[in-house]
Amino acid sequence: MIFQKCINKYLRIAFIPLIIIHIIVLENIRFTLWPEMVVYPYLINNGFSLYKDLINPYPPTLILLLSALTNIVGYQPQIFQLFTWILIIITDIILYQVLLKIFKTHYLSLFSLIIFMIISISFGINGLWFDLVQTPFIILSLYYFIKFKEEKSIGNLNLSLILVITAIFIKQQAVWIVLAYIVILFFYNRKNAFQLLFKLYPALIFFIVLSIELIFCFYKTNTLFEFINWALYFPFIKASKISGYLSLPTIKQLLPIIVILILSSPSIFYSRTKRFYLLPIMLSLLFFAYPRFDYFHLIPALAFISILIGLSINIILKASLAERLTYFLLMIMIFIYVARFITRNISTEIRFFEPEIQIAANFISITTNKNEPLYILNGPDQIFPLSSRLPIKPWADEFPWYLENGNLQQNIVLSLISKNPRFIVSKPYSEGDKFDLGSYRPQVIADYLDNNYQNYYQITKTLWLKKKV
């Protein structure tokens, strides 16, 4: 007993150096700052109306938060990097506290946290996007839902729903978790499911109040229709029908996901008290990577999987030698995958904000007039905040799922004619499929610019400054 208390004391202290090691590793792995995280706040702070002047298919919560932050501290990439690391530390702390409440022991909690830290590096946690910001809320929501299942406390269920509703207002994909909760509640509580729903009025009131506040804000700024179109209709109904939007994983990309799902499966299928209700939750979290697959969309799922792997370890330790060896080999495969990712991504550069982008932005800030609009064709939009220049209104990322939607291209051309910018920045289109990023050519916009602008100066190997003919 004394020895166990001593071990627990040292393990409790081990959490702090573990966090420090995590930050050191992140500091030496390429950080990804998605341009939208900088460009959107910059445009909002310079008078662009969200959804009307600035096409954004996500809820406004994170963008408005970043707008308020950048209005104080500016737009340098290092600010966003620090903000991201703080989010990661918060996620680590919350996950560890949840693990302690589930496992009641430090060694298993630390093991599960280490699994999350290691695998999440190769899944792109070192980057700022909506999914990372959602993750702490989703972890807590899942914990309180599991607690509700065990204790049948309606307060835990309400708290779980309030947390996941908050996540929905950050990014819509969290609605999949709500659907999973509904399926579980109706399947396991069929006799009193409807009675249970009437007891969820605190969560319902929370959702209604946030929705009314959001609707009122956009109604007041005459952008309610645009908000409904881009944040609700577009992602849930329209987007998947537009060419170029759907991006499914390859077999190679699926392999590490399949392996970690196998590693987490014993806690669902082979425990004494089968936890089949966890399966719908797992599937809902995997849907975060649909319809445009990328690993960083699976960060919330990975937090949940790390909990399941911790539960699975206790089961595997009591399994046969063959099962233990198989489990160990699968774990080694994942560690090899992560090690390869780390060796290929050791860098202190910030992705999308490399030195050549900074050089291009400095050149543009010197060459062009700050009071004149600037259009960027197929180039890096992050040049706008870095050079303190503004585009025309409306503005959208050069993605086919935006520019092939309605009359957006025609409206942009009309604005180009009206504002008549002297300069544009252009990057030649690469070879590829018609709707691939980099090779996609918005015909109406590109034809107008090709006919009215000519090469003026080559800024970098890939970027040209073009001047009005």
Report on this model:
With 469 residues, the chain is mainly alpha-helical. The chain folds into two domains: 2-33 and 76-199 and 246-344, no CATH class; 354-468, no CATH class. It has helices at 2-27, 36-45, 61-73, 77-103, 106-122, 130-151, 154-168, 175-188, 193-198, 201-220, 224-238, 251-264, 266-269, 278-286, 299-316, 321-344, 355-367, 383-387, 400-403, 408-419, 443-452, and strands at 31-33, 127-128, 350-351, 375-377, 423-426, 453-458, 464-468. Strand 6 (453-458) and strand 7 (464-468) form a beta hairpin. It is globular and about 75 Å long.
How many domains, as an integer?
Answer: 2
The chain-level structural class is mainly alpha
Low-confidence stretches: none
Shape: globular
The total count of helices amounts to 21
Rg calculated over all Cα atoms: 24 Å
Enumerate the strands of the largest sheet in spatial order, edge to edge or round the barrel: 4-5-7-6
How many extended strands?
Answer: 7
Helix content range: 55-70%
Residue-averaged pLDDT: 93
Largest sheet: 4 strands, mixed
Beta-strand percentage range: 5-15%
